[in-house]
């Protein structure tokens, strides 16, 4: 019934198995990939005919994690998987980026790649397994995919690179880098690093590239056994060279003139006018979609040719110059920290809010539930590019850009025990013309320092581009939006003056060489150091203390056995403390207590209350107390938190006392001394041994 084809290799010290022919047989391509005990089913399906009227390739990648893969039942009311998690969105992008450039030129059929995690051993991350499976499914599908690609994760510890580190290993390394590409070169890089040098990062990329070559060979071997007949690409419905020539004759000069305009909106108006003229002039000979495709090619030729011939770019810069930078902090009066970072026509308003552990994000992942105390949210409203558009929940791009900035900042954050705040950063991109994600990195660094978060060092980011024709190429620093869209590379590098903290690279051509990456990294370092110098004009380090509008968090430790005393039955005691003082209180299982309040006096009141509850009375120490009950044989005094003690009638006064109420009444403030404990641990107190005016111990005075 089944015709199963299987390929098995040893990779990174574990067995990797690819199998096809048994599951999802109606898909164009389906491969079940197992690495360790992590299994992902990857399928590829494309429509039989191209989607009419579009000038782009409609590719969708969906990575999805099933709770049963880790033996879990989903949380929430519905008990089933719902909208994609942040990780699912990020991995979908991770798979999309290296495969998208490899589909045949002109292929417009709607294509969907679905990667479903069926088993997770909690050691091997399914993302790499899914990338390998997606590549294999496309390669055997017959869909015009010019792969396969390989992918690998690289760690770095004690000067050594680690191939596909396990979950435990990656937590203890200085690098978490994912690289994907073809036999010829690298197509995609995504990483977080602990201030590593350019040489170490380049070495990691090349280490990963060399070590995923066996994956590419294994996929080719599987394809030789199981690949379907390749699809025939329909011939172009028009003569592309002839149309391009007509466009150059008709509007070439106008497009060239438009690309000398340095202001983005003015340039777009002139380009739009040229395109409208082309559509009007050539409407009887060609379809609008055909004219649109070749017009974009004409734009690319003009922009790229000018850079390679003259070394000058749209805005007049050379290939290495960074646009003018203005950094400002403290721009919002009530925010805990804020910064406005402007670089050319790209601007980000970045705001930091400090919270308590109650504000941490609870994440329910396949690996288990955990809490995140640093959140970075990136928003890209349509007005930032002068457009009117739909406003809604964040899309894949927003989530991806936010995570890139998160990775850039995360290695420099103070340890939680040193700065016990939950950090939420929001980047509102208010203008965009090239690399708003790197503007977010710069703005986040300034905003956190403005809030008083003690970053180890400031962090900056820069986006690099590439124009490559045959053997000629130019690496561009701080790219514009047009240079990103019409160029061959988007290479983002973030870090400090010491080293790189995040690196993300996407290649639109088949691959780039080690030489180009080396030049790009060196040029990016120069640009990053320049940006850091410009940022220092606003702020060189974290402010002393947190913003006056932020809560003050004080950490104290209490004995574990006293935790239930502070909480009280059903939480009665801790609720009373919170209601009476207005402070927030968090208690960890190890006895760590965090007390927070914007008004420091409220925090101090709560701390004194807690200390009173957990404190043990000491012999011969004088305390200030309050009479809470009067009885015939003495008075009960509350003197240490909620602790009461008995002043026997004989200890009320140096004179003989006939009636307790002659000396004290309920509610009186008195000074008492601990003179002993009875058999049940009850405290014995004395008033007569203490001067009720000065609080002086009279027995010591007598001595």
From TrEMBL:
Catalytic activity field: RNA(n+1) + phosphate = RNA(n) + a ribonucleoside 5'-diphosphate
Localisation: Cytoplasm
The keyword Phosphoprotein is assigned to this record: no
Catalytic activity, EC: 2.7.7.8
Matches recorded under PROSITE patterns: KH_TYPE_1 (PS50084), S1 (PS50126)
Name of the gene encoding the protein in the UniProt record: pnp
Main location: cytoplasm
One GO MF term attached to the UniProt entry: magnesium ion binding
InterPro entries in the cross-refs: ExoRNase_PH_dom1, ExoRNase_PH_dom2, ExoRNase_PH_dom2_sf, KH_dom, KH_dom_type_1, KH_dom_type_1_sf, NA-bd_OB-fold, PNPase
Cofactor: Mg(2+)
Record-level GO BP terms: mRNA catabolic process; RNA processing
Record function comment: Involved in mRNA degradation. Catalyzes the phosphorolysis of single-stranded polyribonucleotides processively in the 3'- to 5'-direction.
A single Gene Ontology CC term: cytosol
NCBIfam families assigned: polynuc_phos (TIGR03591), PRK11824.1 (NF008805)
PANTHER family, per database record: POLYRIBONUCLEOTIDE NUCLEOTIDYLTRANSFERASE, POLYRIBONUCLEOTIDE NUCLEOTIDYLTRANSFERASE 1, MITOCHONDRIAL
S1 motif domain segment(s): 620-688
Top-level enzyme category: transferase
Binding-site positions, Mg(2+): 484, 490
Protein name: Polyribonucleotide nucleotidyltransferase
Family: Belongs to the polyribonucleotide nucleotidyltransferase family.
